[in-house]
Amino acid sequence: MMGDKEIPKKQAANGSKNKKKKKRGGSKKRMTSEQTSAYNCVSEWVFLDRPHSPTTDDFAIPWNQPKEKLVFELHSHSIHSDGFLSPSKLVERAHQNGVKVLSLTDHDTLSGIPEALEAASRFGIKIIPGVEISTMFTQGRDSASDEPVHILAYYSSCGPAKFDQVDKFLSSIRDGRFLRAENMILKLNKLKLPLKWEQVAKIAGKGVAPGRLHVARAMVEAGHVENLRQAFSRYLYDGGPAYATGSEPLSEEAVQFICETGGVAVLAHPWALKDPIAVVRRLKEFGLHGIEAYRSDGKLAAYSDLADSYGLLKLGGSDFHGRGGKQESEVGSVSLPMLAVHEFLKVARPIWGRAISEILENYIKYPSETNFQLIMSFGMPKVCKGISPASCPGDFMGQCLSLWLTNEETQNAEFEAIKLKLAAISTNQ
């Protein structure tokens, strides 16, 4: 993992299997019929906004034909937390690297999602609204065994259900990050490494809750360390002389909260944990859906086996921050197998469908301009022809359902009733 928690990657001991093979000419490897079926289902969802989905019966591609590569990037950061690129620049970078689906997962904030969506509409990339939530895992009265655990939350095209509750939940964590950064600065000052709050706040940027990476960058600028890695290895590592905690919720509370607000909960970088088995065992009881088992250097066998043992999804992402250097994986560098992506969407799409239904039902109950703008800030689709979002928000959202969910997902009594209610709102207005 990079950024807020700098942990060196373990090598062969973790069973890392590098899947990269040198290409020496010849044709592309053909998919099996099972892989093609998964590809067709995934591409139907990825290309919902296209006039003709390549997975309809008329356009389905035979199993033995080469197909467009669908690159999923499920772990990335922007300047809204501890990344170096703006959301729009991140999306552009992802596009250059062939990414088709990007999840922006800034630490404890969803504030970068609207900008990412705006940029994605220009580059033809699909955005999964995400967030990496800082939590604390405790094994009882022995506080020495406590350790920070990060949980990735993946939400629907319309963002989380109960957005106000999510915003309050994340705001509380961000407030704790400010206090935590101040405590780290105090500890560094006591270690005769003078650092000012203004330096860290300037690096973090206006309104951004500072993390360890911002403190580390300030240390480099002040000349206290030669580079970021040295700042972490000497002072800011978990339990280090300048380490501090904030007001993180318990890991199990965060997982449960993600599930209650229409999200998919995935354990981030389990290789950074002291006892990943204990963490997975506990969090599975509270609804954990998956763990990261893939990195840019391949699948980690130990964590793939751990996922299998507890019936969890196997995902992964680059954890891209945009800082450059040999230690960072490039955005889009993780090769997620299509079967793994398919399994992820099989679990996620029903959850997201229920969340979208709840969001729209809430709008039907409280059809305010504020609620409409909130939905559009996450689910900002390409403008439906012939309908003005401002004048007919109900009709607009009714038509946009086909961009958020597949026809199969919306062709049921629940969504038919929602469409009628949305149309009625537009008529009344």
What report would you give on this structure?
Helices cover 44% and strands 11% of the residues. The chain is globular, with a radius of gyration of 22 Å. It contains 15 helices and nine strands. The protein has 429 residues and is α/β, with parallel strands linked by helices. Helix 9 links the parallel strand 6 and strand 7. Strands 1, 2, 3, 4, 5, 6, 7, 8 and 9 form a nine-stranded mixed sheet that branches. The protein starts with 15 loop residues before the first strand and ends with a helix.
Please outline the helices and strands.
Blueprint: E1 16-17, H1 33-46, E2 71-73, H2 87-96, E3 99-104, H3 113-123, E4 126-137, E5 147-154, H4 163-190, H5 197-204, H6 212-221, H7 228-236, H8 251-260, E6 264-267, H9 276-285, E7 290-295, E8 298-300, H10 301-309, E9 313-316, H11 338-365, H12 369-378, H13 393-404, H14 407-410, H15 413-428
Parallel strand pairs: 2-3, 3-4, 6-7, 7-9
Antiparallel strand pairs: 1-8, 4-5, 5-6, 7-8
Query: Alpha-carbon distance between the termini?
Result: 50 Å
Unreliable spans are 1-27, 52-59
Oligomer: single chain
What structural category arises from helix and sheet content? Answer: alpha/beta
Strand content: 5-15%
Let me know the number of strands: 9
Helix content: 40-55%
State Rg. 22 Å
SSE order in H/E notation? EHEHEHEEHHHHHEHEEHEHHHHH
Anisotropy-based shape: globular
Q: Which whole number gives the mean pLDDT?
A: 86
Could you give a short account of the major beta sheet? 9 strands, mixed
Q: DSSP helix count? A: 15
